[in-house]
Amino acid sequence: MKFLLLVFSLLISTSFYSQTTEENVLDVVERLPVFPDGGIPNFRKVVVDNFRLKKVKGLGFVSCEVQFIIDTDGSITNVKAAGSNQQFNDEAVRAVSKITTKWLPAKINNQNVRFKYRMPLTISYE
User: Fold this and answer.
1) What residues contact 33, with CB distance under 8 A and at least 6 apart?
2) In which domain, by residue range, is 48 found?
3) pTM (predicted TM-score)
4) What is the pLDDT of residues 51-106, one digit of tens each?
5) Which helix (H) or strand (E) holds 8?
6) 3-state secondary structure 64-98
7) Which residue among 2, 3, 32, 89 is least crowded, i.e. fewest CB within 10 A of its CB?
8) How many structural domains compose the chain?
């Protein structure tokens, strides 16, 4: 049941943000990054497959927000998680950091750009 709730939360709660710099503030990209072999649904599946629920203890609903950068070469960098349960945060960071598949990077003016990706995760302990 916990696994299904984690999968469900991934399916309904994904957000995108473009990387901004002080020199050139951008909030829209011409092409969003693309995760190969199935796009976002496949990325969510890989995160869930990497997630070790037994490493997390909690009561009721536990959630965090995972943020990372999809770099200009498509690699995932700067993975961070913020939430009230440190075990859940640590496992979320581990699950995303373990992914070695490279994305097709975001583009602006036909140039690869860094892209900030945000993904809320939630699990329910019953």
Assistant:
1) 70, 74, 103, 104, 105, 106, 115, 117
2) 2-125
3) 0.78
4) 998 888 887 889 999 999 999 999 999 999 999 999 999 999 999 999 999 999 99
5) helix 2-12
6) EEEEEEECCCCCEEEEEEEECCHHHHHHHHHHHHC
7) 3
8) 1
